[in-house]
């Protein structure tokens, strides 16, 4: 069951690009649900973690610093995060809206987003205006189990789980056959550090969005397919105006069947 607090758009309001912010602790399923939603709504899934990991492969000074911070589970400085994000949201696939997975991660980043500091040619200053925050709620025990079995593709970053979502061929990505690896920051001590940072820095954002009446709470312990269905249905009724171009409800099941 979800708790829904949102102001429905008036009928005569202009459809503005929608920004969906996906919140939840590490291992909540943000990446999986974001990419399913992106497919259903036909807007891009922007994972800040994946963008940063991509930059961290670089042998430059920035790349080496990034690798170090991320392996320890520390947050990366805002200037760098904003830079990477601003470049990505200026790409043409972002005109109708976007799904932000991993941003904002602190109250300060939420304020930067609300104040329009994240600029794009498509949004002028209103990136924070038509915003819905989704919170995937999960217990700490579930998180530790999920992260210890998580494997990612070394090339395309597709995510798997040894038990709940294994690849077709052991150790190989279904999409490109590349080797699956353990994320450096999914090792035990770093997971605890990331959970601590989540509680300290990211959890306060939930009340920030609840006060602004744009928070959708979802039980992230359910099977992936149920979460995706619930999210899509709730968003569809909340955001009728912005979802022109999204897949129709009757196509949702077939998309989920193809992707899960
Ligand atoms: P998860 O949500 O599972 O912890 P992500 O892939 O979203 O993982 O993020 C991995 C790492 O990237 C974080 O631990 C942090 O080092 C960095 N990072 C991601 N998003 C941000 C952000 N908004 N601000 C600062 N650092 C970030």
Shape by Cα distribution: globular
Mean pLDDT metric: 84
What would you report as the Rg, rounded to the nearest angstrom? 18 Å
User: Could you estimate the helical fraction of the residues in percent?
Assistant: 40-55%
Strand content: 15-25%
Give the CA-CA distance, first to last residue: 21 Å
**Biggest sheet, in brief?**
6 strands, mixed
Uncertain parts: 1-14
Q: What's the order of the H and E elements?
A: EEHEHHHEHEHEEEHHEHH
Multimerization status: single chain
Q: How many strands in all?
A: 9
Describe it:
- With 260 residues, the chain is of the alpha/beta class.
- Helices cover 42% and strands 15% of the residues.
- It contains ten helices and nine strands.
- The protein has helices at 30-41, 48-56, 61-71, 78-89, 107-114, 140-148, 188-202, 204-211, 224-238, 249-259; strands spanning 3-6, 18-23, 45-47, 97-101, 131-137, 150-153, 159-161, 180-181, 214-219.
- The chain has a six-stranded mixed sheet, sandwiched between helices. The chain has a three-stranded antiparallel sheet with strand order 7-6-8.
């Amino acid at each position: 069951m979800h708790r829904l607090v949102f102001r429905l758009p008036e009928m005569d309001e202009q459809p503005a690009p929608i920004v969906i912010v996906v919140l939840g602790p590490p291992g909540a399923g943000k990446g999986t649900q974001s990419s399913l939603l992106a497919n259903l709504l036909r807007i891009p899934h922007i994972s800040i973690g994946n963008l940063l990991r991509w930059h961290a492969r670089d042998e430059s000074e920035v790349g080496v610093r990034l690798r170090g911070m991320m392996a320890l589970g520390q947050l990366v400085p805002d200037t760098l995060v904003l830079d990477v994000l601003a470049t990505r949201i200026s790409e043409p696939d972002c005109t109708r809206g976007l799904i932000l997975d991993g941003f904002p991660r602190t109250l300060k980043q939420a304020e930067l987003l609300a104040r329009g500091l994240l600029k794009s040619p498509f949004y002028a200053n209103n990136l924070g205006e038509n915003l819905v925050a989704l919170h995937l709620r999960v217990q700490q025990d579930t998180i530790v189990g999920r992260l210890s079995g998580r494997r990612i593709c070394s090339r395309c970053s597709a995510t798997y789980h040894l038990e709940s979502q294994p690849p077709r061929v052991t150790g190989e990505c279904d999409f490109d056959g590349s080797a699956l690896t353990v994320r450096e920051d999914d090792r035990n001590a770093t997971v605890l550090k990331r959970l601590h940072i989540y509680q300290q820095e990211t959890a306060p954002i939930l009340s920030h969005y609840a006060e602004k009446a744009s928070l959708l709470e979802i039980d992230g312990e359910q099977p992936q397919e149920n979460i995706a269905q619930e999210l899509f249905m709730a968003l569809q009724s909340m955001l009728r105006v912005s979802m022109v171009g999204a897949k129709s409800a009757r196509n949702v099941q077939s998309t989920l069947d193809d992707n899960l």
